[in-house]
Specification:
The protein is of the alpha/beta class. The chain has two domains: 195 residues, 3-Layer(aba) Sandwich (Rossmann fold); 150 residues, Rossmann fold. 44% of the residues lie in helices and 12% in strands. It is built from 14 helices and nine strands. The strands form two sheets. Strands 2-1-3-4-5 form a five-stranded parallel β-sheet, sandwiched between helices. Helix 3 packs antiparallel against helix 8, helix 5 packs parallel to helix 6 and helix 10 packs parallel to helix 14.
Length: 375
């Protein structure tokens, strides 16, 4: 159950927020600025690459590496293939994961490691493997973590992750707001130097400004009726989010939203891109999850019986490819099945800025769902 009254009680939200998730969301812009400074201090701006890498390989635990890989793959486009290295078994430590380079990886490839932990023995083994293959290594992780020595021994580049003082004594959740930007920002600066994408310092500054603007609109002191994140969280009460995305930037934002709902709030969600979603999810909207699926719902005892779970479409929109939008057809499909629909569309700006806005609003929404449902 989602306690919607909690959403308009800032003090109660603060008491419920034992993981400082709202603080992390509010500080996302500051985290970007700190990460840019760390990248400069680590020497990213002084790099003189010989050319573009043949491929980007990305490794890290769970949603941390997934989010980074999806975002970098979207932003790099066709300039360079981006491959996420999935864990393949266990490392020589109880319960530890192991990562292995693909057989074709070599000196012309770039290995990026993104981890909010830095103690994973499997990642240190991967760094050693990359060094033997002649593969360049760049890692972003908490300072003074074991991965630091491994990267130094492989003559790679280590960038300290931008962390806050209150995060020093607790493990960081990979989907927590702020963690993504702390890991992603130095890699954006690095790939700007290699020419794979455009993310100069002024562009990253605009991203930080956009994140600050979202924090002002979505903070706990802003009432639900004028707060897009709280409003979305309330709309998702007792529903299965079916996240449809339109536009290149919206796709990774939708995947990120689903991951945050699962990891922070324990809520499942489905994602698909338009226009493919119109076919792949049409039966879902007319099945057991449809709003009118239970003909006896009107006569149900609303005190004794749990409310039926129904799908709710969440439409995340950015500039549609080719200028042709499938949103009208998406609305028609949802409404034809009596399925409620929520929509988010960012203000104008660069691809990085619109992506940042969509991620920031949905991050806040995931946190509000988590807090109001007691997750």
């Amino acid at each position: 159950m989602l306690d919607e009254t909690l959403l308009d009680d800032p003090e109660a939200l603060t008491r419920a927020d034992r993981r400082a998730l709202l603080r992390g969301a509010a500080e996302a812009g500051a985290r970007v600025r700190t990460a840019v400074r760390h990248a400069v201090e680590a020497g990213v701006n002084d790099l003189k690459p010989d050319g573009r890498p043949r491929a980007l390989l990305i490794a890290g635990p769970g949603t941390a590496s997934v989010g980074v890989a999806e975002l970098l793959g979207t932003l790099a486009g066709a300039a360079c293939p981006v491959t996420r290295i999935h864990p393949t078994g266990v490392a020589p430590a109880a319960g530890a994961l192991r990562w292995d380079l693909p057989g074709w990886a070599g000196p012309v490839d770039l290995l990026l490691i993104a981890t909010p932990d830095g103690t994973e023995p499997g990642l240190s083994i991967l760094v050693e493997q990359a060094y033997r293959r002649g593969c360049t290594v760049v890692a972003v992780a908490p300072d003074h973590s074991p991965i630091t020595d491994a990267v130094g021994g492989a003559h790679g580049l280590f960038v300290p992750m931008a962390t806050a003082p209150y995060e020093q004594d607790q493990p960081l959740t990979a989907s927590a707001p702020g963690v993504l930007w702390a890991l992603l920002t130095p890699l954006l600066a690095l790939l700007d130097r290699t020419g794979l994408l455009s993310a100069p310092a002024d562009a990253l500054g605009k991203v930080a400004d956009r994140l600050d603007q979202v924090a002002e609109r979505c903070g706990p002191a802003i009432a639900t009726y004028s707060n897009p994140a709280k409003n979305l969280a309330a709309e998702l009460a007792e529903s299965l989010p079916v996240i449809w995305t339109e536009g290149v930037s919206a796709a990774p934002a939708g995947q990120r939203f689903a991951a945050a709902l699962a990891e922070l709030a324990g809520r499942p969600a489905l994602t698909a891109q338009l226009p493919e979603a119109l076919g792949s999810h049409s039966v879902l909207l007319s099945g057991a999850l449809a709003a009118g699926a239970d003909p006896d719902d009107f006569f149900r005892d609303r005190v004794e019986e749990a409310q039926a779970l129904h799908a709710r479409v969440v439409l995340l929109r950015d500039r549609p490819i080719g200028g042709l939008s499938a949103a009208p057809a998406a609305r028609e499909l949802a409404l034809s099945h009596d399925t409620a629909i929520s929509e988010l569309e960012p203000e104008d700006g660069s691809e990085l800025e619109t992506l940042a806005e969509l991620i920031a609003i949905t991050d806040f929404a995931a946190v509000y769902v988590a807090l109001a449902s007691g997750a």
